[in-house]
Amino acid sequence: MELVAGKDDMDVTVKENGCTFQFDFSKVYWNSRLGTEHERIISSITPDTVLYDVFAGVGPFAVPAAKKLATVYCNDLNPHSYKFLSRNLIANKVKGEYKSYNMDGRQFIKDIVKPSIISHLGDNKPLVVVMNLPALAIEFLDTFVGLLQDVDLSTITRCPINVHCYCFSNVADKDYEQDVAQRISKVLNLKTEHILPKHCRRVRNVAPNKEMLCAEFPLMWDIMMCKETDDEPTRSKKPKIDQP
Questions:
Q1: What pTM value is reported for the model?
Q2: SS3 content of the chain, % helix, strand, coil (to 5)
Q3: First vs last Cα of the chain: how many Å apart?
Q4: Cβ distance 47 to 68 under 8 Å?
Q5: 3-state DSSP assignment of residue 93
């Protein structure tokens, strides 16, 4: 970011969804146009929710979720984002249990999300994964393939895991939902019909012929348990995704 005129001070304070966020605008990402989108996700969070925020930024999802008493595991690879994320959690005096991390997204899923999911098996708490890195988030979904293949889940009631994966689409025919559905299906080694366009919601127009979308779907346990990564992973039965 280049300063055109005025004082060279990028430290800002903004308010959103009942929380205050402080950060250096030159070192982290923030878009106030996404305030309604943040609110939409936060409105679905309850005190018994466990939230995994893979690309948390300065905390637009993590902070208000923790303020609603949810259990929050939040992460960002950018050290500046992590610094302000941690500060904002403290400054807002959140009462929910939370832990913040400065890790690569894949490592966060393997080292933090996986053991946490295992610890919540059988307690029927809603588990929510937010992946707000539109340019790359879909590529990180492959980390969930076979994530729990070494865990015996045969006698355990499996709690629901709902994913909110943000992404961009700029296909020429403007069939953005179908484009996203196909890309996610490919990464998760699924047939396209299992991730449907109806699971992909438009968030905002970014540029001519370019949309930001949010793909929302329950993460199938068969995906995390499979030991194969061919076109059709090993599953106990044909999976079906219902709209959350």
A1: 0.88
A2: 30, 25, 45
A3: 38
A4: yes
A5: coil
